[in-house]
Protein 1
Amino acid sequence: MLDLVALLIAVILLYQVYLFAWVLWYSVFNPGGSAYMREQADRLAALDPPVSIQYEWTPYEAISPALKKAVIAAEDARFTEHGGVEWEAIRKAWRYNERQEDAGRNRRRGGSTLTQQLAKNLFLSADRTYIRKGQELVIAYMIEAVMSKRRILELYLNVVEYGNGIFGAQAAARHYYKVDAARLSTYQAARLAAILPNPRVYGKNMQSRYVQSRGRTISARMPSAVLPE
């Protein structure tokens, strides 16, 4: 029994070393995709007709500052201050979700930072399990340990999902507004950030009441959003 426990611990530790090696790699080299992208590619390929992944890596300098500020304002206002995980935000999300479940509603809050979302997108799946969430937290700390905030934001903006098969700032800008990511306006950037909680649903109608209202809220917050140096 002790041998099995020791073997299990060794396997877990080796897997963490493997993940950390990839984190180090991505701190220097750009990814050609992500685990979440590959998971979605399989799902989209099975549709009739099949849908292709839209993705094009875009350097940090070629992404509109408006989109950078919009994403921070919408998803992680303290991005430049925290160490990868906001425990108080997680506790608040937990309590909120419990209330929603008790009331029989399906609304959920994640409480995840941009770093946690990047960890999930690059390495994990969309499964809502405690094991997956725990691994996400570990990877988030790995990312923060070796990457600058600027690099984290660059990676996030390039791999986050913006709709069915649409990944990254460039693909989103071209799909929704027929412009390059560098030319996104404040209005456009705020609306793109507004759909992030559920892009496959909200991205179907960028003129919906929710997207417009959420976009206005994000626009109002953008001036106070702090970009990494």
Protein 2
Amino acid sequence: MVTIENNCFSIPQICESGQCFRLDAVSEDTYELLAGSRYLKIGIRQKDLAGETDGSGKADVHGETILYCTQEEYDSFWKEYFDLSVSYSDYIARIDADDDYLRSAAEFGRGIRILRQDTWEMIITFILSQQNNIPRIKGLIRTLSERYGRRRETPDKRVYYTFPEAEALSKASEQELRDLKLGYRSKYICGTAQMVADGRIDLEALRSLDYAEARAELMRLPGIGGKVADCICLFALHQMDAFPVDTHIKKVMELHYPDGFPFERYRGCAGVMQQYIFYYDLKYR
């Protein structure tokens, strides 16, 4: 196992930040994560200065996170997945001293990091996210994985299912997906899976594009508009200038940034600021 000091790193906050839907708490101090075909058990020890568990957003600097994997697995995959080679303290230090709202949001959600997730998984996940809530999105992903993914076992012999590949979903009919309660999104998923499976969209090539190019390419897929494309750019392609705007963010922009958000100041980390704002508005307001 690998132990990490919680310097701007909080699994509970990441779990509730709206970017990852296969990360779940299984007890007060244990989480499980599925990423594509990988499984990871995570332990947390987060305490405030008084020595008590604290879920307020300040807890992440007073504890440890335990990743139950080998050092080799950590170095080859999980370190990059959690973006742990990057200093998020430096991002926070860039916040305008006069911007009380953003400073409060960053302090509250300082344990959030932008995960480097699988592009295909994020495409389907954020198609499913449209007009949906987090518990239902999680349930639909679980259902799709059980139906079209591959059966695997955890180290303690519990069964889980990998995220379904494009090839597998391309063979599903729209009616089959509707029967799984995916609703109108079924048509989009069928069309998207077929485009990816037959090479009309090259997922690997997306990583070589700049933000604007990647966003435009993603919007060629059925059911993907600007907001969903921004989510994929940020949470899969790690395009850190992507700034998804949903109802939470729109409300904050109108209230706190009526003259526009200062994107120039946060070039290269605007997406981090978006996550601080989203989490703060979701959990605190």
